[in-house]
Structure prediction request, 151 residues.
Amino acid sequence: MNELLDLYQDIILEHNKRPRNKGLPDPADATAEGLNPVCGDEISVGIQLRDGVIQALGFEGQGCAISTASASLMTEQVKGKNKAQAKEEIKRVMKMLSEEEPTGEEIGLDTWGELAALQGVRRFPARIKCATLAWHALDAALDGKSEVTTE
Ligand code: ZN
Prediction:
């Protein structure tokens, strides 16, 4: 189990060091800024839609390692998905992060891919808002809102 946690930590650190899809798409069809006052994270997410599909997306801003890594993982996860599918992904990750004791589905690299690494954050309740921030921002952008806060 500890080895697995180390692996998850490595994924987070790697995405923080080399974030994927850094920078907003130009032009962006929708952009939303997410604020997490507790930690001081500020992450903007921009999406480019074609026929309802997220063709391109990216993020920018200043955040801690967890918020940056989560944003990076998110962009990889929802790229190429349509709005409904992206909403499902948001719901799935929010639910996973909010459950103290995971019920039902086992969350492993085989089923969740690198996103499984985010479950390590559950052990640090104060950091959960860091992990959900980019997902909140994406959710807001999909709804046409320009700002969202975790408070
Ligand atoms: Zn943070």
Summary: The radius of gyration is 14 Å. Residues 36, 39, 41, 63-64, 66-67, 130 surround zinc ion (CB under 6 Å).
